[in-house]
Amino acid sequence: MRNKRRKQVEAHKKIRRSILFTLGILAVIYLSIALLFGEKGFLRYSKLKSNKAEIQAGIKNMERQNEEIKKQIDKLKKDPNTIEELARDQGLTKDDDEIIYNFKPNEEQQPQ
What is the CB-side half-sphere exposure of residue 67 using CA atoms within 13 A? Predict the structure, then answer.
């Protein structure tokens, strides 16, 4: 009787161990999937990191453009020759009797 009871206890322990082992494996699989594909997972993190790098590069580019525009504004405020050149590019004249000629190259003479 004692041997039979002992065998039952051992069988029960084996079943319990296998259930705990299976639950442990399932937990590891779940955590691995969550770490890779979850909302805060590694794949999302790497995508956000690359987006951050692109946005920072865009910010630097815009800052450079802003600096160039500020220089152009300062130049327009301080240099009358720049204003005159810009006005002439727009087709404005300095005097009323001034005539502007626009020469357009013939299609035959354009470099290819």
Answer: 6
Per-residue confidence (pLDDT) for residue 17, from 0 to 100: 95
The predicted structure's pLDDT at residue 6: 87
Question: 47, 55 in Cβ contact below 8 A?
Answer: no
- The domain total for the chain is 2
Residue 58 confidence (pLDDT) above 60: yes
Residues 24 and 51 in one domain: no
CB-neighbour burial class of residue 41 (10 A; exposed 0-12, middle 13-18, buried 19+): middle
Kindly report which listed range (20-24, 40-44, 85-89) carries the lowest average pLDDT score.
85-89
- Cβ pair 11, 18 in contact under 8 A: no
The whole domain housing 88 covers 40-92
Terminal Cα distance for the chain, rounded: 106
